[in-house]
Write a structure and sequence with these properties.
This protein is of the alpha/beta class. The chain is built from 13 helices and ten strands. Helix 2 crosses helix 13 and helix 5 crosses helix 11. It is globular.
């Protein structure tokens, strides 16, 4: 005989009351834990916080451009360039040349007190420019140099994600040809030259050609040669953007710490999935090399075969030295100081001790970038003496994060947290200030190296 339990109104009310109390307790503890999470992460209380920027939230939205589907376009001189339009950082835009800057180019001085600093390189150099404009570390240090005490620094970025030599050299020449004036030039590189040129080698694309990872999706679209899988992947990338955009909006408007924590975890997952899909899209690309590229409307120099690693890295290193030397030669002839910075990267082993939390963020066993950096960075370091002998002022920045207790890397590629950006900017500023002070030659202020002789 089946017994039927009948709940009277009092029992139902009691069960509802207990359930409500449990839900309130759960919400309380989730909120309490979220407050602790926010305090540890941002070193401030959630309810009295100054709302952090996207970068300070630890979100890597590099190059996503939520408002458009095609973020880069082929460029007749630069290889490719970001599409002009808005940027998520207040005060910045993708300008008429596609660089992230408050200004259009060529920038013309509005008064003689302005001191124009051009920054060249890839995404690390681009992020450096943004951080410098926002924080003015270099400007503060340069005011300690006699003759520069009252200068207004204008930082102009000519750096974009994926750029590598000889793109910096070619862009410099083009900008000079259209009348851009420089008082100083900074080139931050090393990672892209090794990592992305090695990807070119695997794709049998000439090492000095623009990054295959960036250029081939554009040329394949132009040639209408994307495979079905690549098209499906491209659609997923496009569909991911509004979802990420919505969670970013939720994150900015959260009134409770638990809301922030839940959306923060959600967006970290969405961003990870986005970049995995981008990597999948790149693998699915259909490279039209069966006919030697004869069917393509785009001309790129190719290789007959994949070069052995040792030979490829030697050629990459030679290009790195040669192009920086030429940049210095051109600028020295105009009495413009040129500073070259070899950027730090997690895959080049130094004395830095990584916490388990940072290791989970900064390293990937599957990245194609690890081996070129492990094998290639020692080659770059060995050629620093050659650059110095050629008159190039180069700063070896590979060790600048060694003593930092904070997490330095925001991803498993090469980009830095705000703490890392601060250390890089401080290192560059202090190094440049010291060199300029050493070069003082009264009564004339000779800031540039002497021009090289042929």
């Amino acid at each position: 005989m089946i017994m039927k339990h009948k709940f009277n109104r009092k029992q139902i009310k009691e069960v509802g009351k207990i359930t409500l109390i449990n839900l309130l307790l759960l919400g309380f503890f989730v909120e309490l834990g979220s407050l602790g999470f926010y305090l540890v992460r941002h070193n401030q209380l959630f309810y009295t916080r100054q709302r952090p920027s996207i970068e300070e939230m630890g979100l890597n939205l590099e190059g996503m451009r939520m408002e458009i589907s095609i973020v880069e376009r082929l460029h007749p001189y630069f290889g490719y360039a970001p599409k002009p339009g808005p940027d998520f950082r207040p005060g910045f835009k993708y300008n008429n040349y596609g660089f992230i800057s408050p200004y259009n180019y060529p920038f013309v001085k509005t008064n003689e007190n302005q001191f124009i600093v051009g920054v060249f390189g890839g995404s690390v150099a681009s992020n450096y420019s943004i951080y410098e404009i926002q924080n003015g570390i270099l400007e503060t240090k340069l005011r300690e140099v006699p003759g520069l005490e009252n200068k207004e620094l204008i930082i102009l970025s000519f750096a974009t994600g994926g750029y590598k030599q000889p793109q910096q050299l070619l862009i410099l020449n083009y900008l000079l040809s259209v009348g851009q004036v420089f008082d100083m030039v900074i080139n931050i590189d090393g990672f892209n030259e090794l990592a992305l040129s090695s990807v070119n080698n695997e794709q049998k694309l000439e090492l000095t050609m623009p990054s295959a990872s960036h250029i081939q999706p554009l040329t394949n679209l132009g040639n209408q040669s994307l495979s079905t899988k690549a098209l499906e992947s491209l659609l997923k990338i496009k569909q991911a953007k509004p979802r990420i955009n919505q969670v970013v909006s939720n994150l900015k408007n959260c009134r409770m710490a638990s809301c922030y924590t839940i959306n923060n975890l959600a967006i970290q997952g969405l961003i990870k999935d986005y970049y995995q899909e981008v990597a999948r899209f790149q693998r699915y690309q259909q490279i039209p090399d069966d006919d030697g590229g004869e069917g393509s409307v785009f001309l790129f120099y190719t290789q007959e075969s994949v070069l052995p690693e040792e030979k490829a890295l030697a050629k990459i290193t030679d290009t790195w030295v040669r192009t920086s030397t030429v940049m210095n030669h051109i600028l020295s002839a105009k009495n413009i100081p040129y500073f070259h910075i070899l950027q730090p990267n997690q895959y080049h082993a130094t004395n830095r001790v990584f916490s388990s939390e940072e290791k989970a963020i900064a390293f990937s066993e599957n990245t194609p970038y690890r081996q070129p950096i492990v094998a290639g960075y020692p080659l770059l370091l060995n050629r620093i003496a050659d650059l110095e002998a050629a008159g190039v002022t180069i700063f070896n920045g590979v060790n600048i994060f060694d003593a930092a207790p904070e997490i330095m890397y925001i991803d498993n590629c090469c980009h830095y947290t705000p703490a890392g950006e601060h250390i890089l900017s401080s290192y560059v500023a202090e190094s440049i200030k010291n060199i300029l002070n050493q070069r003082l030659n009264p009564p004339n202020l000779n800031l540039a190296n002497e021009p090289l002789t042929d």
